[in-house]
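During the reporting period the student researcher (J.K.) took over the structure-prediction task from the postdoctoral fellow and processed the backlog of single-chain submissions. One of the processed entries is reproduced below for the supervisory committee.
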Amino acid sequence: MESLFLVIATLCYLSGTIGYLVYLLRDREVLHRISWSILLAGALFHGAALVMLTIETGHFPVTSIQEAISLFAWVFVVTYLVIQIKLQLRILGSFVSPLAVIFMISSQLLPTKAILRNGSSGSGWLIAHVASIFLANALFAVLFSLGIMYLLQERRIKKKNFGLLYERLPSLERIDSIAHVCLLSGFPLMTAGLITGFAYAAMVWRSPWNWDPKEVLSVVTWMIYAILVHERLTVGWRGRRAAWLAIIGFLATVLTFVLASLLLSGHHSVISGNLYG
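J.K. obtained the following structure tokens:
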């Protein structure tokens, strides 16, 4: 049954994305309402599938790369839906929903082999680690989308190309202010995710730091966001530089997962066969 629900969720995400792309070209409130509702329906089916998978397998759904990416796609969509309710930035869905579809489809193409050992998927440290990291990365994915929006709008303003896209995108000030909120909300969660991850590593591998490729790359990614936070709060970085660093940070996040999980040997790797211990 969860497989059917995942298919329905994917179709909902695809349909919602199509609706939002049309909304990008045609300013019709009804298009936004329909697209948002379709994404919500997809999130409900997706969440139900994850719950059924957890009950069926008896473990938190992060024991394979496929499960982890699927869970992240769900967290990302739910995060966007909540942000939309709070901030009412309708056009953001046109940039977020395609990214959600990419993650959802990618999850179906990645390895399904369970690579969790020691039966520790129910560890409180692991659950806290995954919850905080995934929510942080969802906020950073929204931040990535805002960065793209900012650069597009800035480009049109500089070229005095006041066409359709310029009219549809919000002001640079509003994009930047929302990005600021996402960054300051996501960074503490990412920090908490790393700390709980180190605690989990100490429990499973008897050491909080093992020079694992994913550990190293995760710290490098954390440093990118730490620089962005520092520069925003102390130097007053805003606008173009902040947008580019937000984009780089999220690309580093994705690269960290792909490299560490699929290509590099380590505790978090398919090659080693023990993604979470």
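The committee noted the following: The mean pLDDT is 86.
J.K. will present the remaining backlog at the next meeting.
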